[in-house]
Each structure stands twice: as structure tokens, then as C-alpha cells.
Amino acid sequence: MAGATVVAGLLVTTVAPASADKNDSSPGPKPTVVLVHGAFADSTSWNDVIKKLRHDGCPVVAVANPLRSLSGDSAYLKDVLAGIDGPVVLAGHSYGGSVISNAATGNKNVRALVYVAAFLPEKGESAVDLSERFPGSTLGDAQRSVPFTNADGSQGTDLYIQNDKVRHQFAADVPRNETDLMAVTQRPVTNAALTDGAAEPAWKTVPSWVLVATRDLNIPPEAQEFMAGRAGAHVTRVRASHAVSVSQPGKVTDVIEDAARSVR
């Protein structure tokens, strides 16, 4: 759920394969790293991670997560993955963790999963279920709801973080000039997406890496530890807010590259 929002809509932001970069002296092609943002953000929340991955010679695709429903967002990501040749390291932040867990199931190209302050739901669990199972999340009190009408006439609810609470709730270790922009440009997630139950998760069969943000006010660190342990994941702990891909891009990149080395 992190980051400044510049690009909206259901587009895929791609970064050219890093074969043009001259910094990689290791043998063999590197897997493509696919990055999936969470709620209240867009793919630009990965910008500094992308720069570091490119510098190190990694091909990168940053996906614009629709944030409309878990099943629909997962189907969208599956289509993106179907267009990528070769091995993939799939990384998700926050709600994006639920999406990658669904979308990677059955995809033999996905060789590693990376969860960055993210959800690793079991079948049937929702993001809301997991957030409320452990103490520490103050997201509910920081949100505002905006009703909307779908094209078919049905009603839905978009969720935002109240502008004056974005820095404390979401990105306390990010400079205020950035969080002011993040507050204004955040993308909403539907209530339905956060309450949808997960499908059979890929982390049961695909090796997983988890970065736990120990100062997270959205997903309690205790919940992150529980999910990581249940998945048998490699765990890295970082003293950071929920917006760890913005505040600690180097640490996030290190975890992704560790996962990438395992599949080469």
C-alpha cells in the first residue's frame, strides 16, 4: 500500500530488460522481477527499488494493480505474467501480497515469491481477517469511505486514508514533502478487495521471502511474523513503516535479489 501516485488506470509500467546494462558480470540471464503494489499506492511506489534492480542488471515489470477485487486483480496479474518469458520473481507489497499469492498458483515460471510488509493469506482468509487477528493496526480509524456506482449499477465503497493521517499511519519514516504528495495522489482500494477470501495460495509450493516492517501500523508486525512462519519463508526484519519500499528501497532490493539468486 505504499508510495507516491503518478500513474493511474489499469496500465502496466514496464522497465526495459536490463540486458542493455553493463553492470552485470554474473553468468546466465537473470529472472524477470515483477512488482505488484498494494492499496493507496500505484507502481511508482517501487521507483527507487526499480532503479536499484536495473543498476544491478535485473529485468523489471511494475504492474498497475487495479485494486478492485481480489479475484479480478489476480486474474489481471495472471494475464500480465502470461506475457513474460522465462523465470519470474514475483514481489508484492501489502494487499499486493494477496494478489501475488493467488495469481502465481499453477504458474511454473514463478520461481520465488517476495512479500514486502504484505499479506500471505491462507485459502479463505482476507486482508481484513489477518489485520484484525493481531493487535497493532490503526488503519480502520485512519480511513475514509467514498461510495461509488459500478457500470452495472451496483454499489461499492472505495477506501482512502485521510489526508492528514497518511504520514503517521502509512509512511512515518518518509520525508513530509513526499508524504504530502502521497496523501493527495493515493489510489483507493475497494472494501470488497480487502474482504474477499483468498484462493489456494502459491506460497505453499513456491519458495517465499518475507520482509517484515517492524514499525508497520497497517499490517501488525505480529501478523507479518505469523504469516511468514506459516509459509516457512526466509525472513528479513527492517525498522520501517508500512511504506518500506519508499523509505528503505535498498533493503527491499536486497531481499528481492536474494530471492532472484536462488532461481538462477
TrEMBL record:
Gene Ontology MF term list: hydrolase activity
Classification via InterPro entries: AB_hydrolase_1, AB_hydrolase_fold, Sec-Metab_Biosynth_Hydrolase
UniProt keyword terms in alphabetical order: Hydrolase
Native source organism of the sequence: Streptomyces chromofuscus
Domain of life: Bacteria
Name used for this protein in its record: Alpha/beta hydrolase
Domain AB hydrolase-1: 33-253
